[in-house]
Amino acid sequence: MSGPNGMLYGGDEIGALVFDPGHHSLRVGYAQEDTPKADIPAVIGVGPATHIPDAEEKVPDGNVTQSATKKDELRYYIDVTELHVPRPNMEVQTYMKDGQIDNWDLFEKMLDYCYSKVIRSPSEHHPALFTEAVWTTRPAREKLAELLFEKYQAPAFFLVKNAVLAAFANGKSTALVVDAGASQTSAIPVIDGYALTSAAARSPLGGDHLASQAKLLLANMHIHMLPLYSIQSKEVIRERERARYTPRILPAGLTSSWQQYMLKRQYEDFVHTVAQVSEMVYDERTAASVPGVHYEFPGGYHQDFGPERFKLTECLFEQTLGAPHLVCAAASACDADARSALWGAVVACGGVACTAGWMERLGKELAARAPSAHRLKTSAPPAHSERRFAAWIGGSILASIGSFQQMWISSQEYDEGGKGQLERKCP
Asked: Which family is annotated (predicted)?
């Protein structure tokens, strides 16, 4: 189906784009594809641009004049190939805060990168579907629409709640979506394709909290985490033997924000490799009976991790902040006649939901808490990439459905109705 100007937004004639901005990364790609074209860290390196003054800008002693210095601009480093290079005076900043876009100047740099380096096509050729958190404010929604229509000249635009899209990705229009992401975990009821914002529940226990717990765990074990960038070479050593490595000579002026970001990535790798969720409430004796997982640190030190890898994740199921409690709170906040359908369609997504044992633990804890009158059913895609990218995949599906094409806000509609179109067409 074509849009108001005769353009086939979601079909083969024009490629609609799906953007899924999150706290950890931004996923972007074409509708109808199975996975995003790129998964880009949601941080940007900001540093001084290298400036070579013209001859007329120099004073007799060769120094740069004040006027020449004023012409200097900041340079932005986006994606891992640029971000992970040690650069003097490069600060690492994020454009996200509390699950929504907060620094719009930085986010524009990210969109510039997406169109020029990832999509490699003019923005005015592609309708853009964006995901959003259920608690996104009205000014933030309006700012995004303004940016896409007025700067990027998008032919059409649409906003959808990420929980709704995660449900769609799992083949459901009604579900209770548990999103375990980087900055938080949330439980959001979705009924007939609409997210019930008033019933949503969330807590700050997410991937970032796990990384902090990993840092504390290793410190208590007297294991020093060295960032990968600081190692030039390392020797092969026996298990638990003191690391022997040659440090890399680094440039002066590395910022604290960059060093902390790189160290955090290392803790995230440790969690991704080692962490596992216990089937029941953590018991050291039971955890000790499970085979350990070997991990080698950047400096070469390596050892097996046993019960501590289960203890690391126990915080995710904390009594009043954990995912099971959020599900119960969200379901209880809905009308009684909707609860049965929600308990029968608990859908999990997000990067933390990929942690080994997480889904099984959620199912067991919910089985113990669910009202006896309701039949509990939990589900999540078996592939980890589908759990991580659930909202993006849902957007890809939605934007390619023929009946959806009349839902886009066209540039003509925006010109005529302004930002008010958002509340009318994207509730």
From this structure: Belongs to the actin family.
In terms of pTM, does the model score above 0.90? yes
Is 275 within 8 Å of 307 (Cβ atoms)?
no
Residue 47: what are its φ and ψ, rounded to 5°?
Answer: -145, 170
Confidence band (pLDDT; 50, 70, 90) for 69? very low
> Can you tell me the distance from the alpha carbon of 312 to that of 221, in angstroms, rounded to the nearest whole number?
13
Using a pLDDT cut of 70, give the percent of the chain over it. Answer: 91
Do 321 and 186 contact (CB within 8 A), yes or no?
no
* Phi and psi torsions of 348, nearest 5°: -110, 145
Based on the number of CB atoms within 10 Å of its own CB, is 403 exposed (0-12), middle (13-18) or buried (19 or more)?
exposed
What's the CA gap between 401 and 373, in Å, rounded?
A: 36
CATH of span 171-204+318-380: 3.30.420.40
Common-topology check for domains 171-204+318-380 and 207-316? no
Q: Using CB atoms within 10 A of its CB, is residue 149 exposed (0-12), middle (13-18) or buried (19+)? A: buried
Q: Is the pLDDT of residue 63 over 70?
A: no
- Residue 395 and residue 400: Cα distance in Å, rounded? 9
d(CA 184, CA 202): 7
Per-residue pLDDT for 64 more than 90? Answer: no
DSSP 51-65: ----GGGB-TTSPBP
CA–CA distance, 186 with 183 (Å, rounded to integer): 10
Q: How far apart are CA 163 and CA 348, in angstroms?
A: 10
Contact 327, 339 (CB under 8 A): no
The DSSP element (H or E) to which 303 belongs, if any, is: strand 302-305
The pLDDT of residue 14: 60
Helix (H, G, I), strand (E, B) or coil at 159: strand
Instruction: State the average pLDDT for the chain.
Output: 93
| 17-164+394-425 CATH choice from 3.10.290.10, 3.40.190.100, 3.30.465.10, 3.30.420.40 | 3.30.420.40
Q: How far apart are CA 390 and CA 411, in angstroms?
A: 28
For tokens 């807590």, the residue is 203
Q: How far apart are the first and last CA of the chain?
A: 22
Two structure tokens written together for 223? 């294991």
Please give the Cα distance from 389 to 384 (Å, whole number): 9
